[in-house]
Design a protein that fits this description.
Blueprint (H helix, E strand, L loop, with lengths): L2 E7 L8 H5 L2 E8 L2 E9 H11 L5 E5 L3 E12 L6 E8 L6 E10 L3 H4 L4 E4 L3 E6 L8 E4 L9 E3 L10 E2 L6 E6 L4 H37 L1
Parallel strand pairs: 1-4, 2-6, 7-10
Antiparallel strand pairs: 1-3, 2-3, 4-5, 5-6, 7-9, 8-13, 9-12, 11-13
Length: 223
């Protein structure tokens, strides 16, 4: 996936950046090893579309003032707590010769027989996987087929995930990504229904005992 984004150098800093936001611009900064920090701004709508596709793990060609172009990742985005609109974005320049570590999202695909046929519930332990690779081998996300979950004893482990050549998964290979939990039996449902009643009965019994003790104390005081 190749994405490009135009940016402009900005002189406005501090509280004055609110004027940029009013004009549908997002203030940001570009930084990287050996690179002097650059204050920039990007168009709100264009960035929103790109960020929706790229997230924080896809390379972007960031072009400043139609001159210099940098390979970057979106390092951090900030949002207004009231409007949820983007309020600031950090771009990190990437050295294409060195490996990077990022977290990529997981998307579960397929149908698990243990769900469809046995009525179980999918239990997901991970929603992201940490990987290491050269920037040119970076993947946007990872699809995991859950059709291998045929029984409640089956599990998808980190070590079962197949990744493209040049990509290494850093998470523990023995970690469980997904399983299917068996449905609750009628006996278990009945047990759950009975517990609240037992608690109510216990509470009522305790309250009666407290009332009786209080009456006894009152009688003693009168005597």
């Amino acid at each position: 996936m190749e994405l490009s984004l135009n940016a402009k150098k900005r002189e406005v800093i501090g509280k004055k950046v609110s004027e940029l936001r009013k004009n549908n611009l997002i203030p940001g900064v570009l930084y990287g090893k050996g690179l002097e920090n650059r204050n920039i701004s990007v168009g709100y709508l264009v960035f929103s579309r790109i960020f929706k596709d790229a997230g924080e793990n896809t390379l972007i060609d960031l072009k400043i003032d139609d001159k210099d172009t940098f390979k970057v990742l979106v390092q951090e985005v900030k949002k207004d707590p009231l409007t949820s609109r983007f309020s600031h974005v950090d771009f990190r320049q990437i050295d294409m010769t060195k490996k990077i570590r990022v977290e990529v999202p997981i998307k579960f695909i397929g149908e698990a027989p243990a769900i469809k046929e046995l009525g179980g519930t999918l239990v997901k332990s991970f929603d992201k996987i940490k990987i290491e690779c050269l920037p040119q081998n970076l993947i946007h996300g990872m699809e995991i087929d859950i059709s291998v979950l045929k029984t409640f004893d089956d599990a998808i482990k980190i070590g079962n995930i197949v990744v493209p050549e040049g990509v290494e998964i850093l998470d523990d290979k023995l970690g469980t990504v997904a399983t299917v939990e068996a449905p609750i039996s009628e006996e278990e449902l009945k047990a759950l229904d009975q517990k609240p009643e037992e608690k109510v009965e216990t509470i009522e019994k305790v309250e009666k005992e407290k009332s009786a003790d209080a009456e006894d104390e009152n009688k003693k005081e009168k005597v």
